[in-house]
Amino acid sequence: MLATAASLSAQGWIETDRLDRPGPLVRPASPVERVRTHVQVRIQDRVAHVEVEEWFRNTGRGLAEGVYLYPLPGETVFQGYSLFQGDAEFSGEMMNADEARAIYEEIVRRRLDPALIEMVGQGLVQARVFPFQPGETRRITLRYTQLLERAGDAVVLRYAASSVDRGEPGDTSAPLGFTVEVQAGEAFLDPFSPTHRLQVTREDGTLRIRPAEELRGRFALFLPRAGEPVRLSLAAHRPASGDGYFMLTLSPEQVAASSVPRDLTAVVDVSGSMAGEKMEQTRRALLQLLGSLGPEDRFRLIRFSSGVEVHRPGWTQARPAELEEARRWVRGLTAQGGTNISGALEEAFEAATPEGRLPVVVFLTDGLPTVGERDAEAIAAMADRLRDRARVFAFGVGYDVDTYLLDRVASAGGGSVQYVGPGEDVEDALGALAMKIRHPVLTDLILSDFPVQVREVFPTRLPDLFAGEELTLFGRYAAAGSGSIRISGEREGRTARFQVAASFPEHTLEHDYLPRLWAARKIGELTREIRLHGPDPELVEEVRRTALRYGILSEFTSYLVLEPDMVAGGGGMRAPRPVAPGMRSGEVAVRSAAAAGAARGARSAADLAVMESMAMDAAGASGGARGSLPGVEDLRAVAGRAFVLRDGTWTDRLHEPGGESRVIDVAAFSPAYFALLRELPELTAWWSALSPVLVAGRAVSLRVVEGGGQERLSAAELRALVRDFRELEGARDARGTHDAHDARGARDARGPRGGAR
Fold it and tell me: For residue 8, is it within any domain?
């Protein structure tokens, strides 16, 4: 539902017009088009050897020649390159970012196309290519070596693939193949990406990585080093104004057996509504759960309908004979009767777990309480009182579940809740959890130290860390600094401590996906607060403000980012409304709760897209048909801001018409335009993606226009505009409540199991 910014291209292109010819670029579409690209990256320790093969075809009627241009990532150190056309090596020139700037700006001016301004800050390889015969296809190969940057205990590879071809506007991108091979792969833990899903395989000591989908946009790959039970990786983004954002990832070592033995309690609903395929899937899921147990683990099995029945009293050691007997009990489960949730939870927390073991409760139901205590608040209060140290992982099957109760019990229990919709497989959902919690690595986590002041760190309460599952935190920091981040937790009955050297930069535009991921986490946390405690005005306003600031569409906030006249209006179309706080069951409530959970767990740009899709499905279920939301086609989220098409201009939703901020018109591609980009590089993402566009600053909004606006700025005028534009974020945050989330007591740095201070 959201259109994103066109990304810069780290694929090359051929500029067929003479760059040294004065005047604007007036010519038909380029006769040379890129047919496909294949990128192969081989990583040895911190060194990446990159080979780019690109195929170009002359689609014109005459000879075509020009200059091959390939942008080099600006953050890396290059150790050499070679360039081939077919089998013949030919000469080219490697330029640093400052040298490349003039070429990029000249092409932007001549093409009257802002897409290339994202290249500023990149290096550049350029070489004149041999003439192409009509219809001829040529292969160009570029090989270069770069030194990868460190990010705590990880090394980071970044690449940027184009969303559009470097030909004329509207051209679709050529296919891109992208593969990473890591030599001595055993030296690294499992890689992760905050931008894309990955396909990862290990074979003969080599780690092979591919994007799970066709690579588009900015790609970031983190490779945590092995050798320690837990490795910490840090990425930061800080524009020239306001707070910075960071992502801290804890990557656990793979272990052959549980570092912390578990006491696992499986509680399953066998009421009459579970009959049929749901019961079959549940049996298979429980068998998977039993199969995940190790010899040091213990287990309890509980089934409930109108009454509650245990497989055996007390704990059962997970030995082969006992497991086989438990499997027979599971295969004999049948569905009948009512739903005694209070009795089942009371029994689940009955058996105590000693220190040194991890108590885990898996609770599955498909209905509302019909037997025993039926009041959700009373049941949740009882569970809070009896839970002790147990981590609760809840599953709601279908739409007839109490989302308030499940969210409340799972949240208090330091676990999670997952909703399995009609037609979805219970076995898949429970099986994924069984694999996730198979090997606890670190429990009772405490993030005890940062070298800088941080705030609004999500999750607010740290969950346990399991092998094969990274734990990712997102937060904000106020001022730059360097030092150590320390984390501690329980491991094998002892307190284990880890630390990593970390640098929080004063200014960096790398990792620009972090603000929206942080905002999604915050909206997810706030939405859960509203669902559990009611629509506190401060929380609702904080959700609204965060959604507008970062361009997040969610089920709860989608109607907030539309124009006032788009709500409940003409043509029988209306914007969706948020789920009512008292609505706890039914399709709308379940979809809303699932979307909020996806927001709280978002770790990548791909996760964010899924969350937004789930949220819009929930909005459609509440009355607005998905795909028919008025004005959504005129809404864009770019680099943490929401823009709406107003009177033909993409207008920043933070701009207040008629407010105190003045508007300055800047002529597109003029000397003033490029001077502002040099002094305010944060404008690059917005100016390259949208045209014409108005971007809001602290005391001035800048509007890029064609056929008008200021052409030049004096040094004094430029300094004044930079001063008046910056510090928007800090100024906005200072208005009203500083942090409504803190006002409700969901503190950044509290809780019995540690949150980030």
Answer: no
What single string gives the DSSP state of each residue in 226-289? -SSSEEEEEEEEB-SSS-EEEEEEEEEPP-SS-SS-EEEEEEEE-SGGGTTHHHHHHHHHHHHH
CB 551 within 8 A of CB 516: yes
Range of the domain at 296: 262-436
> How much is the pTM?
0.76
- 543 located within any domain: yes
Scan for tokens 């307190």, then name that residue: 495
Query: What is the pairing mode between strands 649-652 and 635-638?
Result: unpaired
Choose among 611, 521, 604: nearest CA to 212.
604
Same domain, 398 and 333: yes
In a domain, 206, yes or no: yes
Looking only at the bridges linking them, the beta strands covering 77-85 and 244-252 are unpaired
Select from 533, 536, 578 the least CA-distant residue to 553. 578
Do 34 and 152 lie in one domain? The reply is yes
What is the Cα–Cα distance from 438 to 291, expressed in whole angstroms? 10
> Which string of DSSP letters, residue by residue, matches 411-441?
HHTTSEEEEE-TTS-HHHHHHHHHHHTSSEE
**In this predicted model, what pLDDT tens digit does every residue of 46-57 receive, in sequence order?**
889 999 898 988
Final residue belonging to a domain, choices 637, 672, 689? 637
Residue pair 336/367 in contact (Cβ under 8 Å)? The answer is no
| Cβ contact 702:673 at 8 Å | no
Q: What is the pLDDT of residue 153?
A: 87
Query: In the structure encoding, which two tokens stand for residue 328, read together?
Result: 């027979």
Whether residue 537 sits in one domain with residue 627 = yes
Structure-block tokens of residue 441: 């690595």
**Tens digit of pLDDT for each residue in 129-176?**
888 888 888 888 888 888 888 888 888 998 876 543 333 333 446 788
Residue ranges in the chain modelled with pLDDT below 50: 1-9, 20, 23, 25-28, 163-172, 558-581, 624-633, 728-757
In terms of domains, do 235 and 150 share one?
no
Question: 95-104: long-range contacts (C-beta < 8 A, 24 or more apart)?
Answer: 95/123, 95/124, 95/125, 95/126, 96/123, 97/121, 97/122, 97/123, 99/124, 100/71, 100/124, 103/19, 103/69
Are residues 293 and 206 part of one domain?
A: no
**Do 122 and 210 fall within a single domain?**
yes
Q: What was the pLDDT predicted at 2?
A: 26
pLDDT at 600: 84
Mean pLDDT, the chain, as a whole number?
Answer: 79
Computed from CA positions of residues 509, 511, 516, 522, in that sequence, does the dihedral angle turn out positive or negative? negative
The answer to whether position 748 is within a domain reads no
